[in-house]
Amino acid sequence: MQPRGSGSSSKLDRNEIEKSRRLQLKDLYSKLASLIPNQPSEEGLPLRDMLKQATKYVVELQQNVEELKQRKAALKGDEGGSKEERLLVLMVRNMGSTLEVNLSTGLDKEFKLHEVLSVLKEEGVEVVSASYTTVGNQIFYTIHAQLIRAVLLQL
Protein backbone atom coordinates (compact mmCIF):
# COMPACT_ATOMS: atom_id res chain seq x y z
CA MET A 1 0.00 0.00 0.00
CA GLN A 2 1.31 3.45 -0.93
CA PRO A 3 1.83 5.99 1.77
CA ARG A 4 -0.69 8.77 1.83
CA GLY A 5 0.46 11.81 -0.19
CA SER A 6 2.76 9.96 -2.57
CA GLY A 7 0.13 10.29 -5.34
CA SER A 8 0.09 14.06 -4.95
CA SER A 9 3.89 14.09 -5.05
CA SER A 10 3.96 12.29 -8.43
CA LYS A 11 1.22 14.63 -9.66
CA LEU A 12 3.42 17.60 -8.69
CA ASP A 13 6.35 15.99 -10.53
CA ARG A 14 4.20 15.53 -13.64
CA ASN A 15 3.02 19.15 -13.41
CA GLU A 16 6.60 20.38 -13.08
CA ILE A 17 7.71 18.27 -16.08
CA GLU A 18 4.80 19.61 -18.15
CA LYS A 19 5.58 23.20 -17.14
CA SER A 20 9.22 22.69 -18.10
CA ARG A 21 8.16 21.20 -21.45
CA ARG A 22 5.87 24.17 -22.20
CA LEU A 23 8.62 26.67 -21.34
CA GLN A 24 11.07 24.82 -23.58
CA LEU A 25 8.56 24.82 -26.48
CA LYS A 26 7.87 28.53 -25.96
CA ASP A 27 11.62 29.22 -26.11
CA LEU A 28 11.98 27.15 -29.29
CA TYR A 29 8.99 28.95 -30.92
CA SER A 30 10.60 32.30 -30.09
CA LYS A 31 13.88 31.20 -31.64
CA LEU A 32 12.06 29.99 -34.76
CA ALA A 33 10.16 33.28 -35.05
CA SER A 34 13.42 35.24 -34.80
CA LEU A 35 14.86 33.31 -37.76
CA ILE A 36 11.96 34.04 -40.11
CA PRO A 37 12.36 37.35 -41.99
CA ASN A 38 9.53 39.88 -42.35
CA GLN A 39 7.69 38.72 -39.23
CA PRO A 40 4.75 40.93 -38.32
CA SER A 41 5.53 42.97 -35.23
CA GLU A 42 2.44 41.74 -33.41
CA GLU A 43 3.06 39.38 -30.52
CA GLY A 44 1.28 36.09 -30.35
CA LEU A 45 1.29 35.10 -34.03
CA PRO A 46 -0.60 31.81 -34.11
CA LEU A 47 1.71 28.81 -34.11
CA ARG A 48 0.06 27.48 -37.29
CA ASP A 49 0.85 30.72 -39.16
CA MET A 50 4.41 30.85 -37.85
CA LEU A 51 5.03 27.25 -38.96
CA LYS A 52 3.57 28.05 -42.42
CA GLN A 53 5.90 31.04 -42.73
CA ALA A 54 8.88 29.01 -41.55
CA THR A 55 8.09 26.26 -44.06
CA LYS A 56 7.74 28.80 -46.88
CA TYR A 57 11.04 30.43 -45.89
CA VAL A 58 12.89 27.10 -45.83
CA VAL A 59 11.54 26.26 -49.31
CA GLU A 60 12.71 29.70 -50.56
CA LEU A 61 16.16 29.05 -49.08
CA GLN A 62 16.32 25.66 -50.80
CA GLN A 63 15.39 27.29 -54.11
CA ASN A 64 18.06 29.96 -53.58
CA VAL A 65 20.65 27.26 -52.91
CA GLU A 66 19.70 25.49 -56.15
CA GLU A 67 19.85 28.75 -58.13
CA LEU A 68 23.25 29.55 -56.64
CA LYS A 69 24.53 26.08 -57.47
CA GLN A 70 23.36 26.55 -61.07
CA ARG A 71 24.94 29.99 -61.19
CA LYS A 72 28.20 28.63 -59.84
CA ALA A 73 28.20 25.84 -62.41
CA ALA A 74 27.44 28.35 -65.18
CA LEU A 75 30.25 30.63 -64.07
CA LYS A 76 32.65 27.70 -64.03
CA GLY A 77 31.45 26.75 -67.51
CA ASP A 78 30.09 23.38 -66.40
CA GLU A 79 26.76 23.73 -68.18
CA GLY A 80 28.21 23.64 -71.64
CA GLY A 81 26.69 26.98 -72.64
CA SER A 82 28.67 29.46 -74.66
CA LYS A 83 30.57 32.23 -72.94
CA GLU A 84 28.14 34.82 -74.32
CA GLU A 85 25.19 33.14 -72.58
CA ARG A 86 26.88 33.42 -69.18
CA LEU A 87 27.96 37.04 -69.38
CA LEU A 88 25.05 38.69 -67.56
CA VAL A 89 23.19 37.20 -64.61
CA LEU A 90 20.55 39.18 -62.71
CA MET A 91 18.83 38.20 -59.46
CA VAL A 92 16.44 40.41 -57.48
CA ARG A 93 15.35 39.48 -53.97
CA ASN A 94 12.34 41.25 -52.50
CA MET A 95 12.71 41.41 -48.72
CA GLY A 96 9.62 43.38 -47.77
CA SER A 97 10.48 47.06 -47.94
CA THR A 98 13.99 46.41 -49.22
CA LEU A 99 15.44 44.91 -52.38
CA GLU A 100 18.74 43.20 -53.03
CA VAL A 101 19.85 43.21 -56.67
CA ASN A 102 22.74 40.97 -57.68
CA LEU A 103 24.32 41.22 -61.10
CA SER A 104 27.30 39.45 -62.54
CA THR A 105 28.94 40.03 -65.87
CA GLY A 106 32.17 39.28 -67.67
CA LEU A 107 35.02 41.78 -67.69
CA ASP A 108 34.87 41.89 -71.49
CA LYS A 109 31.14 42.75 -71.49
CA GLU A 110 30.28 46.45 -71.74
CA PHE A 111 28.01 47.13 -68.80
CA LYS A 112 26.73 50.42 -67.44
CA LEU A 113 25.76 50.23 -63.77
CA HIS A 114 24.34 53.76 -63.82
CA GLU A 115 21.66 52.57 -66.26
CA VAL A 116 20.52 49.91 -63.81
CA LEU A 117 20.49 52.47 -61.00
CA SER A 118 18.40 54.81 -63.18
CA VAL A 119 15.84 52.09 -63.88
CA LEU A 120 15.56 51.35 -60.15
CA LYS A 121 15.02 55.05 -59.42
CA GLU A 122 12.34 55.30 -62.13
CA GLU A 123 10.53 52.36 -60.52
CA GLY A 124 10.37 54.14 -57.15
CA VAL A 125 13.34 52.55 -55.44
CA GLU A 126 15.94 54.48 -53.46
CA VAL A 127 19.42 52.96 -53.75
CA VAL A 128 21.02 52.69 -50.31
CA SER A 129 24.34 51.14 -51.37
CA ALA A 130 26.02 49.65 -54.39
CA SER A 131 29.27 47.70 -54.48
CA TYR A 132 31.19 45.41 -56.78
CA THR A 133 33.83 42.73 -56.59
CA THR A 134 36.00 41.33 -59.35
CA VAL A 135 36.76 37.62 -59.27
CA GLY A 136 38.72 36.15 -62.16
CA ASN A 137 37.08 37.40 -65.35
CA GLN A 138 33.73 38.20 -63.67
CA ILE A 139 32.40 41.32 -61.96
CA PHE A 140 29.75 40.88 -59.26
CA TYR A 141 27.57 43.88 -58.38
CA THR A 142 25.38 44.10 -55.29
CA ILE A 143 22.78 46.83 -54.89
CA HIS A 144 20.78 47.33 -51.71
CA ALA A 145 17.70 49.50 -52.12
CA GLN A 146 14.73 50.72 -50.12
CA LEU A 147 11.25 50.85 -51.59
CA ILE A 148 9.82 54.35 -51.41
CA ARG A 149 6.59 54.63 -49.42
CA ALA A 150 4.40 55.36 -52.49
CA VAL A 151 5.52 52.07 -54.04
CA LEU A 152 4.83 50.21 -50.79
CA LEU A 153 1.28 51.54 -50.75
CA GLN A 154 0.70 50.08 -54.25
CA LEU A 155 1.79 46.60 -53.11
From TrEMBL:
Q: Which GO terms describe its molecular function?
A: DNA-binding transcription factor activity, RNA polymerase II-specific; protein dimerization activity; RNA polymerase II transcription regulatory region sequence-specific DNA binding
Coiled coil start-end: 51-78
The question of whether Transmembrane helix is a record keyword is answered with no
UniProt KW Transcription regulation keyword: yes
Q: Which UniProt keywords apply?
A: Coiled coil, Nucleus, Transcription, Transcription regulation
Q: What is this protein called?
A: BHLH domain-containing protein
Question: Could you tell me where this protein is found in the cell?
Answer: Nucleus
Q: Name one GO cellular component term.
A: RNA polymerase II transcription regulator complex
Among SMART domains, the record links this protein to: HLH
Which ranges carry the BHLH domain?
9-61
Q: Which organism is it from?
A: Camellia sinensis
